[in-house]
Specification:
3 helices; rod-shaped; 197 residues; 25% strand; single chain
Length: 197
């Protein structure tokens, strides 16, 4: 088990950490290498109480270890040794960090709407089809499909922007947002819309 050797003293904490090692394989005379006077030295079981739930969102919360320090609580097996306790709790991340996570999720959601490799082609074909439509040229079914698809993408991008703003408002109100739900997504084919369908 993890153990820690401390020296009780007059420091602000009331002790100084000397070393950490495994117990019971520690040398009981290890403190002699530091000082011939063993008064005030104590081996303690290093115990960490983790009250963090398994399903916390690390984009909103981060783990924080708080040192409680030496206690008189006995180890359940090695009853001759007290416990040195630390506690792991959750601390809310800064608003800026949470907002950055929301923006990253928005960008990811939008990336599902058009494959990165298809963006330039889709924008070019949309512009060409719209220009032909403006000139009064009858569009092919494929050109109409491109225009309709880009309208659909535009609406979903706008909806994702609205979702991001709603989540940021939740953060600004000091509440916990659900970053993973409410986004407009698409399952794209390998070849990209509309040519891969």
């Amino acid at each position: 088990m993890r153990a820690i050797l401390i020296r009780h003293d007059n420091s602000p904490k009331g002790y100084s950490e000397i070393k950490r090692d495994e117990y019971p394989n520690i040398d009981p005379n290890a403190a002699i290498t530091f000082t011939p006077d063993l008064t005030g030295y104590e081996w303690l079981h290093f115990f960490t109480e983790n009250s963090v739930p398994n399903d916390y969102d690390p984009r909103i919360w981060e783990q924080n270890e708080v040192v409680v320090g030496p206690t008189t609580i006995k180890h359940p097996v090695y009853t001759n040794i007290n416990q040195f306790r630390t506690e792991i709790t959750l601390v809310k991340r800064a608003k800026e960090d949470i907002i950055n996570s929301i923006r990253e999720k928005e960008a990811w959601a939008n990336s599902t709407l058009i494959q990165e490799s298809e963006k330039d082609k889709m924008y070019t074909l949309t512009n060409l089809a719209q220009q032909r439509q403006f000139e009064g040229i009858t569009l092919t079914e494929q050109e109409l499909a491109v225009i309709n698809r880009m309208k659909e993408v535009g609406v979903k991008v706008w909806q994702n922007a609205q979702r991001a703003e709603a989540l940021i408002a939740i953060v600004d109100a000091n509440n916990e947002p659900d970053i993973d739900t409410g986004w407009q997504l698409d399952d794209l084919t390998d070849n990209g819309f509309p040519f891969g369908e």
